[in-house]
Design goal:
Low-confidence stretches: 36-43
Number of helices: 5
Largest sheet: none
Keywords: Membrane, Transmembrane, Transmembrane helix
Structural class: mainly alpha
Distance between the termini: 15 Å
Helix content: 55-70%
Number of strands: 0
Length: 110
């Protein structure tokens, strides 16, 4: 495997971890007010839109890192990095950086 493929896989795996962490903490919505809580459960919380953005970024990152064509892989990794911008909080900003560097390496390294 080449460097851009390894960076893309690691960035995609960090996106996968980032996808499940908010639902482990806020998914059930139990709080001081019972079932509703402050987050409003799965469907009403602030993380409702999160899978709709993170799952395409995860799929594009995995496909871009597993494909053998450097140009297409680089473009897919850069698109995955742009789509992973909402995940850019805390530790998981590393996934954005890894996907972006992997995409740039795939495009510009000979």
């Amino acid at each position: 495997m080449e460097t851009y493929q390894i960076l893309g896989l690691i960035g995609s795996l960090l996106l996968l971890v980032a996808l499940f962490i908010p639902f482990m903490f806020y998914g059930y919505g139990y709080g001081m007010m019972g079932r509703v809580g402050m987050m409003g459960g799965m469907m009403g919380g602030p993380f409702f839109f999160f899978p709709f953005i993170a799952i395409p970024a995860l799929i594009l990152g995995l496909v871009g890192s597993l494909i053998s064509d450097r140009q297409i892989g680089g473009i897919l990794l850069i698109i995955a990095a742009v789509l992973s911008l909402p995940v850019f909080f805390g530790f998981f900003g590393i996934s954005f950086v890894l996907l972006l560097i992997g995409g740039l390496l795939a495009l510009f390294k000979k």
